[in-house]
Design goal:
The protein has no helices and 10 strands. The chain has about 120 residues and is mainly beta. The strands form 3 sheets. The chain has a 5-stranded antiparallel beta sheet, with no helix packed on it. Strands 6-5-8 form a 3-stranded antiparallel beta sheet, with no helix packed on it. Strands 3-10 form a two-stranded antiparallel sheet.
Length: about 120
């Protein structure tokens, strides 16, 4: 996502450490009211916790949508096409740990699967 961060989404990288050809990236993502991440994938898993607000997490099968609130965790799996949206009443803030192949980008844009939301 970092190279293709859409309007209304900000990312802050707290640390990036490499061990045994794997990058460990600790980051915070803030999604403004009504904004979303756009459809994307990750080359490695990202384990996240919602710090504040609420995050609506949609999968590209257009059937699996979950809403996560403060203290709740979720995992973005490798190459899973998904979207994060803020349909709540305050900014959605998540903190995540990405486990990536060394030198890989945090994420990559994916085609809109036609679910009717962005």
């Amino acid at each position: 996502m970092s190279d293709h961060t859409p309007p209304g989404v900000t990312e802050t990288t707290f640390s990036r450490t490499t061990a045994d050809d794997t990058d460990y990236v600790l980051l915070q993502r803030t999604i403004a009211l009504g904004a979303g991440t756009a459809w994307h994938t990750h080359p490695g898993p990202i384990c996240s916790v919602v710090h504040s607000g609420a995050l609506t997490h949609d999968l590209a099968d257009c059937e699996h949508t979950e809403v996560f609130g403060p203290g709740e965790t979720f995992i973005d799996h490798v190459d899973e096409v998904h979207l994060g949206r803020n349909l709540g009443t305050e900014p959605a803030v998540t903190i995540g740990l990405a486990v990536l192949p060394h030198g890989a980008p945090l994420g990559a844009p994916a085609a809109d699967p036609g679910c009717g939301y962005r």
